[in-house]
Amino acid sequence: MLADFELVKRAREGDHSAFTELVQAYRKRILGTIARLIGHPEDVEDVGQEVFLRLYFSLDQLRTPEVFEPWLYRLTVNAAYDYLRRQRRRGEARMADLSEQQVVWADAIAGGRIQQEEQRRKNLREFVQLLLAAVSEQDRILLILKEIEGLSLKELEKIYRVNENALKVRLFRARQRVLRAFAAVQSKSARAGGS
Amino acid sequence: MNHQDPQQDELRGLFRAYREACPDPEPEPNFMPRLWQRIDAQQSLARDLKWLTEGLVTAAAALSLLMGIFLVRRESPVSFYTSTYVEVLADQEHEGESVAEIIPVALDRF
Fold first, then answer.
1. Among the listed ranges A97-101, A139-143, A155-159, B4-8, which one has the minimum average pLDDT value?
2. Do residues A48 and A58 both lie within one domain?
3. Between the CA of residue A84 and those of A33, A126, A136, B18, B110, what are the distances in Å?
4. Interface predicted TM-score of the whole assembly (ipTM), two decimals
5. What is the DSSP letter of B24?
6. Same structural domain for residues A115 and A195?
7. Number of A:B CB contacts under 8 A?
């Protein structure tokens, strides 16, 4: 826990300076999670603002300060999900198909042909986002929280208010889909390398 | 967990690399002022809505009261019901007798 319970309690009682402290303690981590969830760096700040805005207006509903972190993560997941849904409604192109260009990226990552670090990172980000596009938005968020953010099943249980077994099933299915997409990229890459 | 599956391990490694390739971004310096601005804007919107709702409720209550008064005042001066049915009958009977008394006298004279 990045902030003590006393701070959460004070913020819940309407103490503005406590709320500011709370935001300052969590904003970097939350912005990082959002960046990895939505994959659009230019919108991370806006979604982050939305999360803390929702936090401010819902803090009085928090039963105990002990559940603050799962509560904040739930708000983060909801805001990220809302953002992704809006994006989808706007008809933004989704990375659903594995184009030749993406196969080249995968190949480049595997072979280490691109030397420049930033370019490599960018390619890696786009490649993982492409793989994650193989699953639904909800499953993608769940998978990112588990595999990339490193949250435990117990923590996810508190965030989603779903029992561990149901989460395990959803995670397994999502992982399988991503693995299939990964295998497809690898086989395309191998074919491209062979020809 | 299938740790033997090389693809699973590769995927896990890819996720780790992704985590490293997406470090937590530094928030912009105006993050907090912008957040407080948005909070204030939302609060003032909520205040305005509350004020508008209260105004509408008060206006509706006042209008109901006025309509009530108007209806009560409109109904009270109606003259049909100033006396009871029995009183009206009694009055008519009394008037009838006087007519009956007058008519025979008038016939006798012709």
1. A97-101
2. yes
3. 14, 16, 10, 19, 110
4. 0.74
5. P
6. yes
7. 79
Of A27, A148, A186, the CB nearest to B15: A148
Percent of all residues in chain A with a pLDDT value above 70, rounded to a whole number = 85
- Residue A98 and residue A85 share a domain: no
Q: What are the residue boundaries of the structural domains of chain B, listed by start?
A: 30-77, 80-110
Quick one: A50 and A143 in the same domain? no
Q: What is the pTM of this model?
A: 0.70
Domain tally for chain A?
A: 2
The CATH number of the domain holding residue A44 is: 1.10.1740.10
pLDDT at A33 over 60: yes
Q: For position A167, which CATH number holds?
A: 1.10.10.10
Partner-chain contact B24 A35, CB within 8 Å = yes
Q: Has residue A94 got a pLDDT over 70? A: no
Q: Which two tokens stand for residue A134?
A: 């193989």
Token pair, residue A99, equals 């184009």
Residues of A with CB under 8 A from a CB of B: 20, 23-24, 27-29, 31-32, 35-36, 41, 44-45, 48-49, 52-53, 56-57, 120-122, 124-125, 127-128, 131, 147-150, 175, 178-179, 182-183, 186
